[in-house]
Amino acid sequence: MSVVTNTTTIGAIELPSRRNTELMLLAFAVVIPIFAYANVGLAIHGELPPGMFVYGAGFAVLAGIAHFVVRRYAKYADPLLLPLATLLNGLGVVLIWRLDQSERLQNLAKRSFGAFSPSAPNQMLYTALAIALFAAVLLILKDHRVLQRFTYISMAGALVLLILPVVPGLGADVFGAKIWISVGGFSIQPGEFAKIVIAIFFAGYLMVKRDALALASRRFMGLYLPRGRDLGPILMIWAMSLLVLVFENDLGTSLLFFGMFVIMLYVATERTSWIVIGLLMSVGGAVVVASFASHVQARVNAWLDPFGCYATSGACEQVGQSIMSFGSGGVLGAGWGQGNSDLIGFAANSDFIFSTVGEELGLSGVMAFLLVYGLIIERGVRTALAARDPFGKLFAIGLSGAFALQIFVVAGGVMGLIPLTGMTMPFLASGGSSVLANWILIAVLIRISDTARRPAPAPAPSPDSEMTQVVRPS
């Protein structure tokens, strides 16, 4: 006797979402800044900071909200991006609060502006707004491929954002750089948001034109050189970056935009020649502009010999103090709250905040921070590799490349490796524009990674398919 049973096709097994892993890592990302905050308070005042538990609870709530939004609306997103960004943001607030306790900086602010206003509470407010924007991006942007429709609109939007700082009555000249606009008493740095908007244009444009740009006309010294008519796009972006450098005196934004385009161009075409041409054009343009732009020239001189003009140039003094901060930190550092990086002056909590890391946490702390930044970049590149559409691949690699370039130019500038650019260290430096823009960047990468890792839907069962008969002996 036998039993005959009917079976149907089994659907695809659902992949793990890794949200519990993210939650566990997020707990560490919240606890570590709280311990750092307590350490700073004990080192400077000999007691726990009075607002430690309120800060810790508020930061935990913000991280929990971000996690809930990701769990609900980006179920299959990369589990590392949110904890890494949270860790950096939390430690950034601690570093800013530590510098707020400096009597030197308090007295400097009183002499320069008539009063001292602590930056850490504002940074927490900006963090809350950034988490709200992070959630809004994930709620509104259901599919990153929708952004491809706005390729040329995004180009116009990026140009508007770049032009705003030089508009009379709207732009503000801050220590020689025209990268800010003032609206209703608030200062905004449009270039931080322009890097995301212009990445949409680059991704959409290169997705369509990559075949033409990949064609080579001749081989020279082992490189396949592009056709003359295909040099137009890179010449246009090069000219735009030079205009930013000339009119805004902003070396960092100029290098960031042009470098991001060259990286995306290389990924789209796989032509090494574009990298070589981009580097030559970038160096050539910077040399030409530095020959007549005094603000850029001062930073180049400070890079070449910071101690040669230490007593006469503010740029040289800042770079010199920064280099001495890294040198005095040694391998393990002086300890939280034990350094003297506040000697740098007004930009200690913004452009030069990484110098505080170098002095108080030493080489080990610097490498730990760079490792966290490197992990964010690696997850962004992994997201680009996993993306199933060419627009998503280019968009993710563009955002990751822009993030990596910003880390390089800021860390290289404060260490004396390259001329100082005036950009801010993502998530660490004081400033609302940087925090808001970088949380939006993380949200977009999370959305792309969710689309890339989401399992394909199981095919609908066909009514015409035959039932499989399984005969089991009784």
Low-confidence stretches: 1-12, 465-471
Overall pLDDT: 83
**Radius of gyration in whole Å, from Cα?**
25 Å
Helix content: 55-70%
Could you explain the architecture of this structure?
The chain has 16 helices and seven strands. It is mainly alpha-helical and 474 residues long. The chain has a domain at 146-457. The strands form three sheets. The chain has a three-stranded antiparallel beta sheet, with no helix packed on it. It has a two-stranded antiparallel ribbon with strand order 1-7. Strands 5-6 form a two-stranded antiparallel sheet. Helix 1 packs parallel to helix 3 and helix 7 runs parallel beside helix 9 (251-269). The model is unreliable at 1-12 and 465-471 (pLDDT under 50). It is a multi-pass membrane protein. The chain crosses the membrane at residues 23-46, 52-69, 81-99, 123-141, 153-172, 192-208, 228-245, 251-268, 275-296, 361-381, 393-418, 424-446. It is found in: Membrane. Residues 453-474 are annotated as: Disordered. InterPro entries: FtsW/RodA.
Features:
transmembrane helix; 474 residues; 7% strand; two-stranded antiparallel ribbon; globular; mainly alpha; 3-stranded antiparallel β-sheet; disordered N terminus
Structural topology:
Elements: E1 2-7, H1 19-45, H2 52-73, H3 81-100, H4 103-113, H5 120-140, H6 151-163, E2 171-174, E3 177-183, E4 186-188, H7 190-214, E5 216-220, E6 223-226, H8 232-248, H9 251-269, H10 272-290, H11 294-304, H12 314-329, H13 353-360, H14 362-386, H15 390-415, H16 432-453, E7 468-473
Antiparallel strand pairs: 1-7, 2-3, 3-4, 5-6
Helix pairs in contact: 1-2, 1-3, 2-3, 2-5, 3-5, 3-14, 3-16, 5-16, 6-7, 7-9, 7-15, 7-16, 8-9, 8-10, 9-10, 9-15, 11-12, 12-13, 13-14, 14-15, 14-16, 15-16
